[in-house]
Amino acid sequence: MSAWPVLVTLAALLFYFWTGLMVGNARRKYNVPAPATTGNPDFERVFRVQMNTLEWLPIFLVSLWIFCMYWNGLLVAVIGAIWIVGRYMYAHGYMAAADQRSMGFMIQALTVMILFLGALFGALGSLF
Questions:
Q1: What is the pLDDT of residue 84?
Q2: In whole angstroms, what separates CA 103 from the centre of its chain?
Q3: 1-13: burial string, b at 16+ Cβ within 10 Å, e else
Q4: One of 28, 45, 48, 87 is an active-site residue; which one?
Q5: Model pTM?
Q6: What residue ranges define each of the domains in the chain, with the CATH number in brackets?
Q7: For an engineered disulfide with 107, which of 5, 86, 92, 93 has Cβ 3.0 to 4.6 Å away?
Q8: Is 101 in the active site?
Q9: 28 tagged catalytic
């Protein structure tokens, strides 16, 4: 097995960890004590970045690893790295203003669709 998908998986998990750190920093900066998740719109955007990343991680990681079963590991890693870049663009844009998240969201959603469909076609192709 190629180490590339492993490294991309670890990078995605590090990215998620970073979003958690950003929420902690935002809690202090905007004075939003746990367990509150509302109260300051700037905090709420940082919190939504973390939660949206968490919402997308399962479909991303499962699709990535099923895709990896049927396709080249380096190709998997490149697509996975594009997902991380898209998530970063989403995070950076959303933390600045809610209307600046769209491009990053579209990039990461497209990469997940590619991974999911590649996994599906790989699995179906192995049946015939």
A1: 98
A2: 14
A3: eeebbeebbeebe
A4: 28
A5: 0.96
A6: 4-123 (1.20.120.550)
A7: 86
A8: yes
A9: yes
